Each structure stands twice: as structure tokens, then as C-alpha cells.
Amino acid sequence: MTLNHPELPGCVLILHWSVEVCREGGVTPKMELLTKIPEKALKLFPSQAVGGAAEAFQSLLRVRGSEAAIEAVIMAVSLSPDT
């Protein structure tokens, strides 16, 4: 799933979701948040929030679960004032 905002061209968050199934029947979901942020944007906003997005997402997954973590990312990308 690719998330982007029309007012932030070139800034993309990619949610990669895969499922590993072992021969014994065990199922292990794996989710990663990948960021694509232009170098110019990183210079304008040198905060940890952009650079640490993947690690923050993994923490959110452990604390809130997959559905809530995905919802939080979508709400953050939407930049909605209603959140």
C-alpha cells in the first residue's frame, strides 16, 4: 500500500505487508513502513519524526496491533485537522 499527500509531492510512505507460512502451518505476518522522502524535504525538516518513521511504526505495531497502527499512519498522512 502506498500513501502520499497531494500537497507533499515526492513524499511517499509505503506499507509492505507480507505473510510467511511454514511447513508446519504456522503463519507469521510481517509489516514494514518504508519512507521515500526527497533530500530537499529532509533538509527543511531535519527532525527525528521523518527519519524514525519506520522504527516508530514497529513500536506502534507492538503496542496497538496492526489495524490501529495502519489507521494511525493513514491519519498522519492525511494531515487532517479532525484527528
Give a verbal description of the structure:
The protein has 4 helices and 3 strands. By secondary structure, the chain is of the alpha+beta class. The chain has one domain. A 3-stranded antiparallel β-sheet has the order 1-2-3. The two termini are 21 Å apart. The model has no long low-confidence stretch (mean pLDDT 80).
Quick structural summary:
This is Centromere protein P. The protein contains four helices and three strands; from the N terminus they run E-E-E-H-H-H-H. It is an alpha+beta fold.
List the helices and strands and how they pair.
Layout: E1 2-4, E2 12-21, E3 27-36, H1 39-44, H2 48-51, H3 53-64, H4 66-78
Antiparallel strand pairs: 1-2, 2-3
Helix pairs in contact: 3-4
The share of residues in helices is 40-55%
> Structural class per helix/strand content?
alpha+beta
Average pLDDT confidence is 80
State which percent range the strand residues make up.
25-35%
Largest sheet: 3 strands, antiparallel
End-to-end gap: 21 Å
Q: Give a count of the beta strands, DSSP E runs of length 2 or more.
A: 3
Radius of gyration: 15 Å
Helix-strand string? EEEHHHH
Strand order of the largest sheet: 1-2-3
Low-confidence stretches: none
Number of domains: 1
Question: How many distinct helices?
Answer: 4
Backbone shape: elongated
Protein name: Centromere protein P
InterPro entries: CENP-P (IPR027801)
Organism: Pagothenia borchgrevinki
